[in-house]
Structure formats: structure tokens, C-alpha cells
Records
---
Amino acid sequence: MEVALDFILYLGFFINVLILYLLFKNRENGFHKKVLFVIFLWILLAVVCFYGFFHRNGILFFSTFIFEDSLTVFIGPLLLLYVKSVFLPSHNLLKDNMKNFVFPLLYIFLFSIPIWFFFYKEEYVFSYIEVFQDYISLMILYSLFYCLLALKLLYKVEHVIKHYYSNNDIVNVGWIKRILLGIIVVICIDVLFTIIELIMGELAFDVLYFTVTGVIFVITHLGYYGITQSRVLLPVFLLKNNTPEQNEDSVIISPDKKEKEQSQYDESEMKGLVVLLNDVMNHQKPYLDPDVSLSSLADVLNIKEKMLSSLLNKYIDKSFYTYINEYRVNEVKEKLSDPANHHLKMMTIAYDCGFNSKTSFNRIFKNTVGISPSQFKINIIER
């Protein structure tokens, strides 16, 4: 078991150092990369502490103990800050989230430092630690709460992307969700074992073996994707107005609020914009650009993103994602119906019409038309 644990610790150390080096050398010096750097530096120090503990190396253990012990309450708020930094403007982001770190900072002074003295002096320098020692491990529930908040935010982001981008695979949030779910599982099992030990006494095996293995696995996944993750800024007004329970073509709000939001814009002006939007879509065909977004289309119309979002959701009753892709599907149908294009491959036509993924193209086409693209083409040829 010790050999296996040594291998895991060495692997974790190597991965952390490599990721920190790549983050340091990365030219994109965004706030989200700085948050990621702090996370991996903290985890690296925790790995060093684990190594010092298992090998009874006092220098390594005592020099890094506070970081290892406080990681349990810091990792949740740090991951939430990272998720926010990827999708939200970084201006004042740290300041606005400082309240999330008040408890972790208090934890360092009230528990981590006193426990450090306990291990160093081999006696309780702070007597209250003896009273709380069996329950300190449950402090990790604080991080569990923030991991769940981050997961909730990601589900909201997935929904908002459909209101902002025409291709929902413009950003892959799946890997971040897997990270959070992995950490949530590790925390839940750690808490479960802690409760069992409180009830039944100390277990025959050390739970740290599982915790360390879980952390190493999770950070490997986080590092692999996190280094190349670019920021995908989303409008704050959409994140505030949308919830994960909404379907893709509507915004669930009360009738009074809906009437209030509609009254923000002159109805005749909005009707004129509907005509202008249809004209732009039919003649300029911005949907042929796979990277077209709510922002870029708003620029073409010379209006604000929020106004275009309201136009689509309240007056056209469609999300940006659905609205753009319906035009793309119609363009594909038109090209497939032209005998001059029968020699072209299906994906050649799809890419020309603004789709950037075979999977999403087939799914969107079938959901819109009711049959697959290939079946539609066969029906056209057989006529």
C-alpha cells in the first residue's frame, strides 16, 4: 500500500509542478488563470504535506501543514471563483467574492494554526481544540456547499449559452462539471467515513488513502483542460434572468415582470426591429458564420445585446440559439433541394450553412424537420 501511495504522491507532485510551469509560461494572463495557479499551488503544498506525513519528514510536514489543513475549506470557494472568472467579467470579481473566504481565513487562525502547535508540541496548546477535534473534519462541508453553488452556476451557464451563441459547443463546460462532481463525491465519502468513525470509532484503514487518490485524479483532469480554457464572457443580465429550469425557447418569469420588461422598449420600435432583423437575416445571412453570437448580431443591428435578447424572447418567442439554427436548417434544405448540389457531401453543405459540428447538425436538423438530413436528401432525390 505504501508503494502505491508513494507512486500517487510522486505523480501528483509531478503533475502539479508541470501544470504550474505551463500556467506560468502561458501568455494568456487572465484572472481565471491566476485563480487556477493559486488552486494548483495550494494543492501542491498539500501533496508535499501528505508526503511529509507518510514518511515522517517533519520539515516537509510542518512547513506545509497549514496549507494542507485549510485546503478543505478553501477549495470550494476557490473553485466557485474560478468558474465565475471563466464566464464573468473579472472587474471587482475578487472583491465581490471576498466574503466567501472569511470563514476559511478564520478557520486558519482558529483551527489550522492551533492544530499545527498540537502536532509540534505534542500537547494541546489551545484547549478548545481537544473538544472540537472529532468534528473538525466536518468543516469540509463548507467546501461542499460552494462546490454545489458552482455546479448550479454551470447549469445556468449551459442554458445561457443557448441565448447567446448559435453553437452550444462554442464552450465545453462538461469538464468543469466533471471536476466539481468528482470533488463532491470525494467530499461526500470523506464526510461519510468521518461520521462512521464518530459513531463506531477509528476505522482499520486510513481514509487519507482514498482522499489523496481522489484529489490527484481530479487535479489531473482539471489541469489537462484548465490550461487551455479560454474565457467565455457571458452577459451578466442573462445570467441573472435565466435559471436552469427554463426551456431553451423561453424565459420563465411572472406575467407582471414580463409586462414590465416589455414596457422598457417602445412596441412600435420593437416591431420595426423585427422587420429589420428579418431583412438582415434574409439578405446578409449572418447565420452562415458559425461564430455568430448575440453580441455580433446586435452590432449588425446597431442595438444593445439586452434589447436583442428581449426582441427574440418576448416578441419572436425564440431563443437566439433556436432562431439562428432554424435559418441554418432552412438553408441546408434549400441547398439539398437543388439538383446542382446533389454531388456535395452532407457535411460540406452543413459547414457552408454555419454548422460546425456533425453531431449538433444532425441533432438540430432532426429536431427541426422531424427526419434526419440523410433521409431528407433521399426523399428529395426520389421525388
---
Amino acid sequence: MSVYVPRRAFLEVAINYDQLYFMKSINTIGAAKFKEQCLALLDNLDKQGLVITKHGRPVALLTPYPKEPGALIGSLRDKIAVRGDILSTGLAWDADAQP
């Protein structure tokens, strides 16, 4: 016995499953609650971001703006002390030696 399943119904199930998986892996918040707590949420936004939903369906993904790599240059100045020779392995060896 075969059962006819309309193509559209199958695709809706697949899309809903993907949305469920996506929503479980990232923090979600309803649009009304996001509106109330917007500034606090922006201050505490993690690397994964935040999914904003309306009536349980995701409508937007809020992610932090990527930091410029140039801002990292020199950020550890005066915080790291180099001890010893960083260009040496500490082992004596001869590159020209024959085995």
C-alpha cells in the first residue's frame, strides 16, 4: 500500500526539523522580550549569537560584529615576559653532518 504525501508537506517537515535543530544549538528569545531587554542582550551577546523568534519561528539571527584582527596586534604588550632564546630549540645539531 502506498501513501501519497504531497511534496510541499514533506518539505515543510524538513524545514521545521532544520529550524528546531538550529534553535536548539543557539540561544533563542521572543521578539517582545528582545524589545524589552535589547541593550542588556547586546552587552552580553556571546560568539554564537541570538535567534529572535516570533510565534516560535525564527525571524532573525543577531551575531556580534567581528573584531578587526589589527586590534589584537600589541594587545599583550607588557603582559608577556620572554625568557631565554626563543629562536633556539636548545639542542645542538649540525645540518651539514653526514649520516
---
Amino acid sequence: VVCAAPEAADAGAAAAELRTLIEPPGAAVLGPAPLFALRGRARRQLLVKAADRPAAIAAAGAAVDAVGGDRAYRGVAFSVDVDPQ
């Protein structure tokens, strides 16, 4: 999950909030880790490592929906890649 925002603090806060909400059983959540800025937007990344793929996808989706719906994070864009390379 990548969080991007014009301000690094906003991207970091959204990623930290996601980390508290993503808790699939038997999975590890890594991050938030900084990524290089792209098109003037600061980015932070979370990586979810899980054996139970559907549970991890559901947990990440629910967390992104919850944080994305919060007005405090309205300037943050979320990107979810199910199979990162």
C-alpha cells in the first residue's frame, strides 16, 4: 500500500494509521517506509506479507476504505498493489 500526499507528514500519518488497522491473521506488516517523491508528492509504503492471500487483501482493503474515508486524510492518495514485483 502506497500513500502519497503533497506533504510528507500527511503521507506518513496516513501510512501509520493504516498500519494500526491492517491486522490479517498470521501476517507481517512492514513499514511505513519512505519512498522517493514522485511528481512533487511525498510517498510512504506498507508491505503486507501473508500466507492467507484473501484475508490479507480483505484486511488491506478495509483499512484503506476506513482511512480514505477520514476527512483528516482527504489530501492523501492510496494505491494498493496486490502482487508487487
---
Amino acid sequence: MSDRREFLKNIGGLTCLSAFEHLVPPSLSSLVLGAQRALASGQTDPSARFVLFRVHGAMDSTLGLHPHLGSIQGIDPQDLFLGYEGENQPLEKVDGTQISLGPSARAIAPFAKEMAILRGIYVGPNDLGHPFAIQHMSSGRTQESAPHFSAYIGNQFAHTGAYVVTNSPLQTGHITSFPTLLTSVLREQLINMAHGTKSSTLSVYVNSKQSVTRFLDLQGQTEKLARFVEILGHQEGELDQQEYDQQIRRGASPSMASARAKAKNLKDEDLAFASLYSGIARVAQIDLRTEEEQTLDTHVQHAETHLAAQRKRWERIAKFLGNLRQHDLLKQTLVVVVSEFNRTPGLNANGGKDHNYSDNAVALFGRGVNGGTVIGDRSLLNEAMGFPTLSGPGPSLTSTQGRSSQSAKSYGSRRGAPQQYRKT
């Protein structure tokens, strides 16, 4: 594993992702530095933008960014519990690129020529849980105080006066010289503008002094706000009747009730897109968490639940990318998608997959990306890490047809496996 010093010495930037090839597996810390380099011209180029999607719950890469394509001798794909049955087959070499996708990530296939994938990313030697892992994947470092990618880029663009839009706490560490704007504030602003008022619920800000300053500043950007509202008029979809009825019962006027009901249908990434389009923001960080949707962090019934849950996340990301492309922004925007860690190759005793810190994958789209490129492989999935050997010939495992058999237990839960791969 190359360290930060080695990367600084060798990195050539995301404009040529072959610069990552000397990293086996790719260093995550190289990603944040490469992103900075890819957007370096953004200090003088007003079109440059950056978006970080953090998908919480840990996505199984074999269902998404790193499918098993039968290239490993001696192991039947079905023995890895991949969920490739029926129509759920991986897409190989999409549009003649190096990009192959699992069934959950089919929605991003149209962007194959504008994306790259870093595979085999090592998160750490121990399973310390989701907060540690998502911090590592968000910053390239394990320190809780380490700034997120978005903080680095936001600081780089601070002189432009544009916001960093986020729907979750943004770890800034020692970097503080840039303004942030919450998607909850933008949602409230949209509702009030649709209602024809300039009032706002300032309580959505944690700091009251900051709330007044940011609100007044936002109100002064009338042209940007007009574009923000205009573009969301095409994004909001149908009115949420249940929310509308509830607002009426609470005494809201029909117009306010309608504005709130429509705004409820907007996802945080819709608000982020409108912010980037309008010029309110040049940087966004959006957390995709479980709300009404099915959780990703299941340790049971993987085949029945994980494919559908992951697909919803990728469909949301694909919609965002489609909006960028439709408005000629994708080529100007570097979009990075991360999750905490991968999942184990095999199932545990409950038919689910557990945490796998040894083999993660990251997707990149747009600005500065050598499209259609894949870097890295599953170099860390081996017996030393408590998994069956996936680097060459080996004994075939028991078929998935017998889930009650010994093979249906997690490879990380079997006797002799490292503690960090046991079910948490």
C-alpha cells in the first residue's frame, strides 16, 4: 500500500487515471489529492464543480462496481452468493469500455464513457464500525478530525463566494474558510419563495448568528434563487397528497400546503443539483441514508434485500448524473461516490453478508476523469484475510442451493477467521 508521501511523489492527477496503477491496491488518500488536482483549474474556471455522494450502509461491490465475471478458476459464481440469477446478470465491458457493472448498478451504465472505477481499496485492518469507515472513505484518513474531500474543494473555491451544500455534518478539521448551506434551508427557501414570501425558518441552522448571515446573503442572490426555483420546477414531480392534507389540517393556506407537499418529494440530491445549476453552490456533499427506503446494512437475507436496496441508491445517483448531463454540467463536475466498505464474498448463517474492510470500490464521473477506465482488482481477497482464495485455482464451494449447509455460514465467521470479519 502506497502512503501519502508516495502518492504526492507519483500522482499525475485524475485527468489520467493510469497514475493510480502504481498503487496496488489504489490508495484512498490518493483520491482526495487527485480530486484536488483534477479541480485545480477550478480556482479560475467558474464552471468547475465537485460532488461527493456518501452511501451509508456499505454496498456489496459484487452487486455494483466490481461484479464477479467468472474469471477466477475453480470457483463457481453461484458459490459466492452474488444474486445473479435470472435477469440479474452483470453488464460486461459496457459500450466497449473497461467498465463492468453488477445488477444493482445498471442505472449508471449510460455513463460508462464518463466514469472510472477504483477497485481493491483497503479500508483498514479491523472492523471498527460504520462511522470510522465512512470517515475514512470521505477523507482518505482515519482521524475523526480529518477534513472531507468536500472541505478541501470548498476551501479551494472559497474565494468565489459560492456555498458548499450538504445534508449532513461536514467534517472540516482545520479548514474553516468557506460557507456551507444545508439542504434543509434550501428546501425551506423553496417553499417560501413558492408561497411568495421572504420569511424563513432560521431554526434549521445550529448557530443563530450564522443563520442570519447566511439567510441574508442567500436572499441577496435573487438571480441565482430564481434559477434555483426554476430548475426545481422541473424536478419536484407530483404533489404529495398526504402531506398536503396534513398541512391543511395544520392551518396552512392551500398555496403553502401545495408548496410544502411538492417540496417533500424532492430528494436532497435534487436540491444539490439545483444549487450547482443556479450557481448558489459549486461543491456539494450528499449522504444517501435509509429513510423510508430499505436499509443496506442488512446481515440477513442478502439475496432478497440487498440487490433492491442498492438499486434504489444507484438509480438516485443516475438521476443526478442525468440532470448534470442534460444541462451540460457533467463534463464540468467531478462526482465521487463512496460507501463505508464492501461485503463478504459468502453468506453468514442468517443468509446475509457481513463487513469486508479489505476490498472496497469507488466510482468517479465527469470532470478530469479518463472515462471508461478501471483501476485495481481484488488483490486482498485471499486466505490470509479469512476469505477463500480468489486469485487463482481453488476448490469449489458448496452451491447456494443448500443455504442450510455449512457453506451458508460467513467465511468471516468460520473457525480460525480473523475477529474483524465476524458478524457485528
